[in-house]
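Q: How do we represent a protein-ligand complex in a form that can be generated token by token?
A: Start from the inputs.
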Amino acid sequence: MTNQPEYDVIVVGAGMVGAALALALGREGFKVALVDAHAPQLEWPQDGYDIRVSAITRASQHVFESLGAWPIMQAERISPYRDMHVWDAGGDGVIHFDSADIGEPDLGHIIENRVIVKGLHTCLAEEANVTPFWPVRPQAMTLSETETSLVLADGTKLQARLLVGADGARSWIRQQAGISVKGWDYDQVALVTWVKPEQFHQETAWQRFLATGPLAFLPLTEGYCSIVWSTAPEHAAQLKAMDEDRFAQELQAAFENKLGRIDAIGPRAMFPLRTFETQHYILPRLALVGDAAHTIHPLAGQGVNLGLADMASLLQVLTAAQQQRRDIGSETTLRRYERWRRADNRSMLLAMDGFKRLFSTDQATLRWMRNLGLKLTDNVLPLKRFIMQQALGKDVPHIHS
Ligand SMILES: Cc1cc2nc3c(=O)[nH]c(=O)nc-3n(C[C@H](O)[C@H](O)[C@H](O)COP(=O)(O)OP(=O)(O)OC[C@H]3O[C@@H](n4cnc5c(N)ncnc54)[C@H](O)[C@@H]3O)c2cc1C
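Then emit the structure tokens for the protein with flavin-adenine dinucleotide bound:
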């Protein structure tokens, strides 16, 4: 008789995607070990906002609702956006999306990353099938024909039928598995902060495309906005180093004073921007999800939404395999997940990359075409409705509550 490994799945990375996956697997009866280098942050001072926020689509909201994490996030604080207003600094092209045009109450929600993590981890604390291991890093990993094993820095040895890397863009699991990535660095970083503009944001996600990169004002509670300003690294470094008055002036000018004077400003931080996709999402006994498998320019706010779609797809594939008494870690089982997600993720990665390049060109003909495109699209309601339905992201697999 062969010894069964103690766990069905080891998930490395308890961020937004890994925590959601571990929780969903636990609910389906899988025994899960969840490992993270850091303990989750569940408390913070009442003043200010997390500088990292995510635009969460309706599809991702449904994932959180199914997991029971949504009411916890709502009770903490979330901000709906009912409109999107996008315009081009290199012309007069404007496009405006209104949720009322598709009979929806909103187009999504802006949520602080720490609120999302708190919602998921509060539920995880109640899930007996998930055993947490943090703060600790994995030190050695082995993938054999029948199982996978992971040795943690404190000497703990974990064994399972499947290992999932949800450990972010610089994934240690991916590197250990020797899976290469294909992509490109933008010569851009994102300068992020939060501010209080003089005028109310009107529950609108605002985005202005400058030649140096997009600048977004995303609505938070109490009239505050989260800022994501993608620009050249030297420019971002200057913006970060400026005193508050000077920074406020630069921000107002870059945003064409749309919401008036900038009053309060939070801490500023920079994040490098890359787009890549891994050569493989899976190996026998291994699957990658979220940023470990792909990263995307934040201009359309899709990164974590794609990761949650990965997680819901993998869950469905593993649950079906378990029901049919197939091996959840076999290449045949995992191949279905890879085929499913690679196609979706690649089309989004390429679309966002094309969009970003189109808006950073100085070429007069392309500039003229993109402004015309924005204006024409803005006047065709059925097309706008279609784009909004896509943006809601309704095609994520259903998760049982
Ligand atoms: C400026 C900016 C704005 C963005 N805006 C949006 C947006 O509006 N909407 C959106 O959908 N996406 C957005 N994104 C993308 C989004 O933040 C990422 O896609 C998302 O964080 C990926 O989640 P993840 O769980 O896969 O990885 P991560 O959030 O990176 O989590 C990885 C986890 O793994 C752990 N870990 C890492 N290494 C190890 C290790 N060796 N051992 C153990 N644990 C480890 C970490 O501690 C962490 O908990 C934005 C990104 C940027 C940079």
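Residues 12-18, 35-38, 54-55, 137-138, 166-168, 172, 190, 192, 228, 271, 290-291, 298, 301-305, 307 surround flavin-adenine dinucleotide (CB under 6 Å). The chain has a mean pLDDT of 90.
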